[in-house]
């Protein structure tokens, strides 16, 4: 099973068409020259894959850097897991 | 070529249920943006919009007629009635209705009807849809309803170009009246798409503001959805004078262009091209213009791009222009935006008062024009432009002069 990081790297590479090897945790999507429409598609694919809702310009979350995306997803997935399962 | 004037206007907007009520709020700088009341807020990310509140369709339509009308058509019909009544035009006289055009823009059409049909089908697993679903949701329904109610047999259709739908509609009507293809026209725009599906879709694009709409301000955080309708009566100057009609303004030109570039990111060149064409069509020099009702969505991308486009069009005149975005008050009504903003532009021409850009905090270095922050300004307005720039790079600009 792939890690959150692997999955996010895959999604970024697929949606933006950039070489996966260019992606680093410190880079922001802007640094990677990802257009805004590609960026919102990346966020959507992440949301849909992990069944979470990514924050929109919430100062408590970094959704601009790759590491920020990984941290945000891990936090939201953990919160999701802590909730009682829907019946 | 005939000169074209506007002799009637009607509006149902978040700021008021008539054109005068809407204009009064715009002059006061009052914003109608607030928490969404028509949807469960817990289902929404930010949950703000500019809604038309307290609109009771039964005050305007009997039940038999109402069953045919999505809210998008209800708003258009009420606005059209006001415009036609104000103009004093009698379509029965001299067989005028025989060749009066109707052009009503809408970005989406009968979104409430679509939403309801989807809910029945997918949420309730109810395969039986209302038999009038199609006639309510079709994007040309508002134009058809205005034509039917008034017996108007001229060229009639809808224009669909997202946020430029209204200006494209008014431009088409203008061309038909100017050339004589139509004797007169009823034209404008309408939109009502504050549904769960539509708001969620806008949220997914991540272009909505979470606080309010602050066009051209450094603290702007995106657009805020609105709804409403505005409709106008267009006729030839000679005809209006002959029947002694009160003229609100002269519609003196229209300019349209396509960026042929990005599907969402706007181009200053495309916007400037539309403005330049509007000025040329209206035979206006940059120095003749005093006011621009900006597209001014309040998104990071639009406002600096529009600012550059205004500079490219007006050169040294740009710094003397009053430029305001009334979306700060009535929200972004998408396909109705240009029509509602024409109410603001006509108000400025008639009353020599420029409505402000509300919710303005600090200037943004990338937006360096005079945006009339927060407070309306008394000043002579000889001529004005009203800008609409749609997703897809579709631009439509109207040029108006004070009534002759």
CATH class of chain A: Mainly Alpha
Largest sheet of chain B: 10 strands, mixed
Structural class of chain A: mainly alpha
CATH architect. name of the largest domain in chain B:
3-Layer(aba) Sandwich
**Can you count the beta strands of chain B?**
14
* Rg of chain A computed from alpha carbons, rounded to a whole number of angstroms: 13 Å
Mean pLDDT of chain B: 97
Order of the strands making up the biggest sheet of chain B: 5-4-6-7-1-8-14-13-9-10
Task: Identify the overall geometry of chain B.
Answer: globular
Characterize the overall form of chain A. Answer: globular
State the CATH superfamily name of the largest domain in chain B. Answer: Thiolase/Chalcone synthase
Q: From the coordinates shown, what is the CATH architecture of chain A?
A: Orthogonal Bundle
CATH topology of chain A: Non-ribosomal Peptide Synthetase Peptidyl Carrier Protein, Chain A
Name the poorly predicted regions of chain B: none
Estimate the mean pLDDT confidence of chain A: 90
Figure out the total of helices of chain A: 3
Strand percentage of chain A lies at: under 5%
Tell me the quaternary state: heterodimer
Structure write-up:
- The complex is a heterodimer of chains A (87) and B (404).
- Chain A is an all-alpha fold and 87 residues long.
- Chain A has one domain (4-77): Non-ribosomal Peptide Synthetase Peptidyl Carrier Protein, Chain A (Orthogonal Bundle), CATH 1.10.1200.10.
- Chain A has helices at residues 4-16, 36-50, 66-82.
- The radius of gyration of chain A is 13 Å and the shape is globular.
- Chain B has 404 residues and is an alpha/beta fold.
- Chain B has 2 domains: 4-242, Thiolase/Chalcone synthase (Peroxisomal Thiolase, Chain A, domain 1, 3-Layer(aba) Sandwich); 253-402, Peroxisomal Thiolase, Chain A, domain 1.
- Chain B is built from 13 helices and 14 strands.
- Chain B has helices at 19-28, 63-66, 71-87, 111-123, 133-137, 141-150, 165-179, 196-205, 237-242, 268-281, 302-314, 327-330, 337-351; strands spanning 4-12, 34-35, 48-49, 100-105, 156-159, 184-191, 228-236, 249-258, 291-293, 322-324, 353-354, 377-378, 383-390, 394-402.
- Chain B has a 10-stranded mixed sheet with strand order 5-4-6-7-1-8-14-13-9-10, with helices on both faces. A two-stranded antiparallel ribbon of chain B has the order 2-3.
- In chain B, a hairpin with a 3-residue loop joins strand 13 (383-390) and strand 14 (394-402).
- In chain B, helix 3 crosses helix 6 (141-150) and helix 10 (268-281) packs across helix 11 (302-314).
- The two termini of chain B are 16 Å apart.
- The model of chain B has no long low-confidence stretch (mean pLDDT 97).
- Classes of the chains: A mainly alpha (87), B alpha/beta (404).
- The interface between A and B is small, with 9 and 14 residues.
